[in-house]
Amino acid sequence: MRFKWGRTSVPRAVILLGAILLGIVIGAGAAPGILGHHSTSSPSALSDLIYCTVALLFVALGLAAIEFGIDRQHELDRNLLNTLLEHIPDSVFFKDRDSRFLRISRAMARHCNLSDPNLALHKTDADIFTAEHAQQSLADEYLIVETGKPLIEKEEKETWPDGRETWALTTKVPLKDRLGRTIGTMGFARNITERKQAALRMEHIALHDAVTGLPNRVLLEEKLEEAIAEARSNQKRVAVLIVDLDRFRSVNETLGYCAGDRLLKLAAERLQASLPEGYTAARIGGDEFAIIVPDLPDEEQLEKLPHKIQEVFSAPFQLDGNELQLGAGIGIALYPDNGDGADILLRSADFAVYEAKRKGCGRHSFYSPAFSETNGRQQKLESELLQASAHDEFVLHYQPFVEAHSGRITGVEALLRWQHPEHGLLPPGQFIPLLEKLGLMQQVGRWALRAACYQALEWQRMGLGSIRMAVNVSSQQFDEDNIVDAVVEVLTEVGMDPKMLELELTESQVLDDSEATIGTMRRLKRIGVSLALDDFGTGWSSLAYLRRFPLDRLKIGGSFVRDLGCERTADEVVKSVLGLGKSLGLACIAEGVETRQQYAHLRSLGCPEMQGFHFSRPIPAVEATALLRSARFQIHGFSRADARAMRVSVASAAQAP
C-alpha cells in the first residue's frame, strides 16, 4: 500500500505497522501465552509479550500522532476564524438554537456599539435592538432552525432603542455540527443604510413636488385610487377638488420664478393647514393644487369646503416686502356621480375648474356633464389628427445637445411637431395625448424614427460627422411586441450605423421594472443603439431599475433645472443625479436650460452636457444643418441675446442660395 505524505499519512503508517506486528503475534499463537495459558517465564512467552507490547506501542503512537494532527488543524481553523471575525468589514454572527449569540465579528460589535465582541456572548437581539426588530429576527431564525432552509439577502430595517434606523442586507443559514444536526444559525449582514436612504430620498423626490413638498400627481392618483376602492367597498362617496390660483402668473412675470416658487410654498402651507385630518393635498401643475376628500361628509359640509379654501387664499400674502393678493378658482367632482376612476374624476374636476375660472376670480363649480361640451374643439382636433398623417402634416424639429465646457454640439434630439393647416405649428403637448388616445402613436412614432434616421444619414453624407440622433419612444411604441424589429427594419432600410441612434424612454410611462421591459431594452442594446432615461426624477425613480436596466444616459428633468438657485431641494436633486450617474457609469445631460444663470449653475455642479432654449429652440432641419456647420457655441459669456443672434445668422445662412 502506498501512502501520501501529509498530516496523517505517517501516523497511519505507524498504526498499520503496529497492527501487522500484532497480527503476526496472534497468528503465531502468542495470544494464549499472553493471556495466561502458558507461563510468562518461558523464553517463547516472553518473546511473544515483547512482540505484542511493541505492536500496541506502534498503534498508540499512531493514534497519538493523529490526535496531535487533528488538534493542530483545529488550532489553525480557529486562528483563521479569529482573523476573519477580527477584520471582515461586514457583520458576522453565530447563534445557538435559542438565538443567543455565540460569537460576532468586530465589525458587528462596532455596529452594535459594543466595545468588545465578547460582550455579545449569550445576548439576544432583544438586548441590542428594539422589541419589534428582535421579534422579527427571532421568527426568521426559528424558521431556519426548524426547516433547515437559508434566508438569502433579506433587506432588514434595524430599529434601535435610541430611535435610530439602519438597513442591512442579511443572509442567514443553518449552523450544523459534525453529524449534520442543526445547532443554531450563522449570518452575514452588510450595512446598506446609505444606499437605502438614497433610494428612499429618490422615491420621495419622485412622488413629491420639489417646491412645496406636497404629493405630486403620481402619488395623488395612487391615493385617489385607494380612496375610491375603499369607498366602493363601503358604499361611500369621494370628492376631488382642483384649486387653480388666481393672478399667480403676474407674480412670475413681475417678481420672477424664484419669488413665484416661494409664493407657491406659502400657498401650500396655508392650504394644508386649512384641511381636516385625513384629507390629501397635492400640487399637480404650475399653480394648481388638488384635494382628496375621502369618506365624503354630507352635502352641506362639502359646500362649505370651497368657501373655506377661497377665504384662505383671499388673505394677502407677504413676500419680499410685497403684499400679494391671490384668490382661487375651484372645481369639484364626485365619486361615483362623475366618474369611477382616478383619471376620469380628475378630468371631471378639471372641466369644473375651467368653468369656475370662466365665471371669474374666486368662484367654484361642481362638475356637470354639460361642461364636456366645451371639449368640442378637442374632438374636432382629434378628427383632423386622423387625417394629418395622410396629408404629411407632421414635421421634425431638432434641438442640439451642447458640451458644457466647450460649447461643442454633441448631438440633436428630434422633436415631433404638427403643421396644422389652420392653427400653424402645434407643440407635442397639444396632440401627443390625442395620438395615444386614438392609437396612432405607433404609426406616427415609426414615421418620426425613420425621418430622423434619414436626416442623420444626410448630415453624415454632407460631411457633418456621425451626429448622435435622439428619438423619443412613447409607451405605446415601447409596449409593441415588435419594437425591436421596427428599429432594426428602419436602421436596415436607411443604412445607418446603430451607434448613431439614441432612444429616449420616459421614466413615468415606460419603466415598469418587468422582465419584458428589461428583455426589450437588452435586445435594443444588442442592436447597438444607446438608451437614455428622459425626465429622470419626475417618475418613480427607483435605484433598483437603474442597476438592472442597460441605460447609457440620464436626462435631468427641466422642472429641477428651472428651480436651480431658487430651491435648495432642486440643487440637491441635480447633485444627487449627477453623483448617481457617475457611480453607475451613466452619462448625464440637463434639459430645459433656459438662462445663463442656469447654465452657469449646472456647470459649477459638474453637469457635462446640456440642452435648452438658452442654446437653441427646436429648429427645422435646414436651420439645424447650418447650426451643425458652425460646430460649436461660443460658450464663455454666452447669453440669450447671443443665442438669438446666432439663430438669426443661422436662418440667414439657411436661406442663402
How is the secondary structure organized here?
Blueprint: H1 9-27, H2 30-34, H3 43-87, E1 91-96, E2 101-104, H4 106-111, H5 131-147, E3 151-159, E4 165-176, E5 182-191, H6 193-207, H7 217-234, E6 238-245, H8 248-255, H9 257-274, E7 280-283, E8 288-293, H10 299-314, E9 317-319, E10 322-324, E11 328-335, H11 342-359, E12 364-366, H12 376-388, E13 394-403, E14 409-420, E15 424-426, H13 432-437, H14 441-461, E16 468-473, H15 475-478, H16 483-494, E17 501-506, H17 507-510, H18 515-527, E18 530-536, H19 543-548, E19 553-556, H20 558-562, H21 568-584, E20 587-590, H22 596-604, E21 609-610, H23 621-629, H24 640-655
Kindly summarize this structure in a few lines.
The chain is an alpha/beta fold. Helix content is 49%, strand content 20%. Helix 8 (248-255) packs antiparallel against helix 9 (257-274) and helix 23 crosses helix 24.
Fill in the keyword field for this structure.
657 residues; alpha/beta; Beta-Lactamase; Alpha-Beta Plaits; nine-stranded mixed beta sheet; five-stranded antiparallel beta sheet; 24 helices; 21 strands; 49% helix; globular; disordered N terminus
Q: Please tell me how large the radius of gyration is.
A: 38 Å
Number of domains: 4
Shape descriptor:
globular
Q: At the fourth CATH level, what is the homologous superfamily of the largest domain?
A: EAL domain
Distance from N terminus to C terminus (CA atoms, Å) equals 100 Å
Strand composition percent: 15-25%
Q: What is the CATH-assigned architecture of the largest domain?
A: Alpha-Beta Barrel
Count of alpha/pi helices: 24
Specify the helix fraction band: 40-55%
Q: How many strands?
A: 21
How can the largest sheet be summarized? 9 strands, mixed
Q: What value does the average pLDDT take? A: 82
CATH topology of the largest domain: TIM Barrel
Low-pLDDT residue intervals, each spanning 5 or more residues:
1-8, 636-643, 645-657
Query: Which structural class do you get from the secondary structure elements?
Result: alpha/beta
CATH class of the largest domain: Alpha Beta
